[in-house]
Every structure is written in structure tokens, then in C-alpha cells.
Amino acid sequence: MGLSRAMDISISGIEAQRITMELIASNIANINTTRTIYGGPYRRKVAVLGERSLSFAEELNRAENKMSGGGVEVAEVAEDQTAFSKIYKPGHPDADAQGFVLFPNVDLSTEMVDQVYVSRLYEANITAYNVSKKMMQDTLQLP
Question: Is pTM beyond 0.85 here?
Fold first, then answer.
């Protein structure tokens, strides 16, 4: 694998983690949203990561050279299907006849742990990119 390929893979990781961080920020921002345009409470969104798709030429080159994958991408943004929390708030505008309100399935502690984890992955990809860049620069400075 060439250095430019290693840089491309690091960039794909950086982009995927950026999207994941945006989803985490959206989840935290909507932690108390009890009514969306679809009618119910906000559902937590998670990024599903997968191997980046390669072009035909890249796939052929991969098969000939026994190369590894082509990086990572967000394959889909899925909604977490865990149950909503039901809280007794009789004065709330979205309360049912018994006074219960359905709140989003977003847990702040889970989101904060995910945020720390994803930020570490982001930093690791930036470090890998910078190391590849430095190696490329050192290669060009031959005596």
C-alpha cells in the first residue's frame, strides 16, 4: 500500500468520525424533544460504518496486488429502536390522558461516552494522516 493510499484511508476515517460527531451533537440537542415533524418523540440516531466502496479499477488493482480495503464510510444513519422513556408530567402539552409524556430514547451519559470515544478515533486518524504525510515528505528529501 502506498503512502497516498494510507492518507486516503485516514481521510475517510476522519470524515466518518466527523459525521458520527454531528449525530451525537444532534442527539444531545434533541434530548428533550417530545414532538417531531413525524409526530412522536425524537429517536436517537447512530452511524453505521462500513467499508468504503471502491471503483472497478480500484477493485481490480486490489485483487492483483492483494491490497486491503479502501477505508471507511457511513453506510447508513439508523434510528435506535429502544423504547422511549415514559415520565409523569401532567401539565406538559404532550401528556396523554394519564399525564405521561414520552421522551426521546437519548441518554446523556451514553452520548458523552460515545463523544469521547469518537473524538479519540478522530485524533488517531489525524495522527495517522500526519505520520503518512511526514513519511512522504522525508522520502522526497533524498540526498
Answer: no
